[in-house]
Amino acid sequence: MSGAEEQPQGDGHGRHGLQELIAERREKAERLRAADPGAFPYAFRDTEAIESILAAYEHLESGEETDKRHRVAGRIAARREAGKTAFLDLIDRSGKLQLHARVDVLGPEAFERLTSLDVGDLIGVDGAALRSRRGEISLRVDGFEILAKALRPPPDRHSGLSDVQTRYRRRELDLMASESARKLFVDRAKIISAVRSYLDGAGFLEVETPVLQPLYGGALARPFTTHHNELDRTLYLRIATELYLKRLLVGGLERVYELGKDFRNEGVSSKHNPEFTMVEFYEAYADYDDVARRLEALVRLAAESIGYDGELDFQGEWRQVTFAGAIAEATGIEVLAVRGDEELRAAILERGLKVQTEDAGWAQMADELLSKFVEPGLVQPTFVRDYPVEISPFSREHRSEEGLVERWEAFAGGMEIANAFSELIDPDVQRERFEAQKRLAELGEEESQPYDELFVQALEQGMPPAGGVGLGIDRLVMLLTGAESIREVVLFPAMRE
What we know:
By secondary structure, this protein is α+β, with helices and mostly antiparallel strands. The protein has 16 helices and 17 strands. A hairpin with a 2-residue loop joins β1 and β2.
């Protein structure tokens, strides 16, 4: 075969203005409709994934042809002509396949119709597999159908989308131009499937709880607020699924999980999107040590599902440090020894640490010390354990350390990925903590937990001892794919207008 098969043809984008190009493509679409009543069919069934064809013919020698026919569909990514032969690159979700078209196989009219197509058009092809003389697995075009006309030219397949904002706002173009972008979201789907597979296999029941809630709860965050006209009441997009899931434990569903969207009306950053995906799972008759082992196993399976081979070690038990010990090592401040607002503020100022101290309480300052000075250094998977009760209103008191609760947060790659408790089951203690949160709200603290009387009444029915975990799916995907921003792993992230 000619070397022409290796030379991609441009789409002429630089020779014309965009509107002229769109007009040309629109005229071509009209001509196709007029010449071929079968153009743009309603379906093209029984297709195979390109990756399966590539895998099936790895054994072919250069120049070897087969009589085994296949049926594929996808978008034209490049087109090259060499006399009575043409080569087209076809892409689908799974990969790229070279199409080999010849006049003597298709006939002059069909060959001309195929070679007049533009980069970006969608076609369906029937043909036999071969390996070109230059060693590329290909499909001989024995027949084809034009499935859709691209009126707008696609992004350049070599430079892709250079503008990051455009990549996020027009994800369809990013996916069209970038094989790595397509792979990332395929990997995301595999990771989510692995999470479900682990929990289903461990006897957890997947459930669905309200997204629109009359009272938000389960985390310290500001909610999105809306109004239901018929009921004439204020509702909130959920910030967590925790309280509803624990009510299910009370009802006798001993192992439950929910994987879905949560919403928090707060800042946007490389680690935060106001709409994000979480999985929360709760297990009766377990504690925070038990669910730590579950998280290790779950993340290990997720990593294996995409063949993770990075620097993070998910094979053994994760490192464990305490909240107070990690802060002391990083800053020299013994936070549990300076439990008052003024005492901790003075210790921070004395060391010249950049922490928001003005109008900040002890819990807020202690938490910021962890996030600023400890979290970035937690690269290998690590559990930070045994938090102060002031920042953990739903966690059970520590069985041996006064003033602490049985809570851990999991970190890897310098960011938090999960949060867990030995769950608080005493309704009287929970009522006291709700009251404390209520006082904080009255003092102007926006990120406080509202008083949920129905939840307290549920606890009064008797809740079994339990361990619960909330795992950020978006951050887990970042961790396992090497993405540096949450916007890379969310198909359509929140953007400024």
